[in-house]
């Protein structure tokens, strides 16, 4: 791995973590949910549009996907929030888990579909 990739992932990770933290600060428990849902869409879209088409350098793709989005989304914060909610309200905890899981999958699918559709449209022009 070259130094550009390492630096790109480190900078992306820093920015992604700070962005998630600020979103959590502004929205509380909903900040983690929003970060994970947005991240699901972005990672899918970026993977199937930018990375497949290769308009960006490999080191930049790693910084965006692995660094920024990897730090922006977080499984540990999801689990922590679910456990915290479970101690207060079991139904809210289950709903949060379902919205996170099904919403994440739905938005990842939407990102995939839009990336493929937009990518084909660009190739036909």
Automatic annotation (TrEMBL):
Na(+) binds at residues 70, 73. It comes from the Bacteria. It is found in: Cell membrane. One of its GO terms (biological process) is cellular detoxification of fluoride. Na(+) is not transported, but it plays an essential structural role and its presence is essential for fluoride channel function. The keyword Ribonucleoprotein does not apply. Belongs to the fluoride channel Fluc/FEX (TC 1.A.43) family. This is Fluoride-specific ion channel FluC. It comes from Limosilactobacillus albertensis. The gene is fluC.
